[in-house]
Amino acid sequence: MNSTKPFVEVKNVSKSFGSNEVLRSLDLTVQVHEVVCVIGPSGCGKSTLLRCIDALEPIDDGMIIVGEVVASHPAVDVNHLRRFVGIVFQSYNLFPHLSVMDNLCLGPVKVLREPKEVARERARSLLEQVGLPEKADAYPEALSGGQQQRVAIARALAMKPDLLLLDEVTAALDPELVDEVLSILSDLAEAGMTMIIATHEMAFARDVADRVCFLSDGSIYEEGPAESFFARPQKPRTQSFLKRITDAGRL
Ligand code: ADP
Ligand code: MG
Predict the structure, then answer these.
(1) Confidence of residue 4 (pLDDT cuts 50, 70, 90)
(2) What are the start-end ranges of the E strands in 159-244?
(3) pTM to 2 decimals?
(4) Whose CB has fewer CB within 10 Å in the chain, the N or C terminal residue?
(5) In this predicted structure, what is the pLDDT of residue 215?
(6) In this predicted structure, what is the pLDDT of residue 3?
(7) What contacts 247, CB < 8 A, 6 or more positions away?
(8) Of all helices (H) and strands (E), which one includes residue 9?
(9) Which one of 48, 166, 199, 213 would you pick to mutate in the ligand 1 pocket, going by the greatest count of ligand atoms within 8 A of its CB?
(10) Which atom of ligand 1 is nearest to the CA of 44?
(11) CA 120 to CA 143: how far, in whole Å?
(12) Distances (CA, A) of 10 to 66, 68, 174, 209, 213
């Protein structure tokens, strides 16, 4: 690992919901241009971790720094943070009453204060990038799940984020629609986008991640470069998790 300052620093973070301690003294650093996949069984805290990084959840202890911003500070300027951190959820959360074009332009015009024509121009090129140039005037309900998720990714990209958080973005999709979304993430990784990706798609994680982190018992239990992580997991819980995945034919 090089010695440059990480872009994301999660330091000793703990987070409980009532008596349920979800994150326990969790540490994670992510470098600029790094793609980190966070894996682990359902309920292990992947979404919570991403939501804490995006200041959607307060933490109980520790510190989270993104770029120059202390995201975990109770008085963090979330609007400032969200200008350079994009998040995409499992449920695409598009605005149903807005066309695809207007979904893509809302943030840039309202938050970044871009002239409408500039925002529209970029929206058109983003729709090109996610393979939906003909859908600018469509409404979300007229699109397939995979198409909606591609629009949701384009909408996040329209804010020109420095960091993209992706929370199980293919989990709600029919299997045949998964690849069209994953291939966009591969392209983004190739283009150098810094990403933290919570995913159940192990083959994707193996192929696209620079580093894979296995979340267990509230912290990063084992991590490593994608290839060796999957080929030679070192610790027992990682081994049994990956064995279950392999036995189920998912790797
Ligand atoms: P994952 O994304 O890995 O499936 P989550 O981060 O969604 O895991 O959930 C981790 C744990 O935190 C689960 O036990 C879940 O029930 C609990 N949890 C998540 N969000 C909330 C919330 N808003 N209120 C109470 N409990 C929550
Ligand atoms: Mg989740």
Answers:
(1) confident
(2) 163-167, 194-198, 211-216, 219-225
(3) 0.96
(4) N
(5) 98
(6) 59
(7) none
(8) strand 8-17
(9) 48
(10) 3
(11) 20
(12) 9, 13, 33, 19, 13
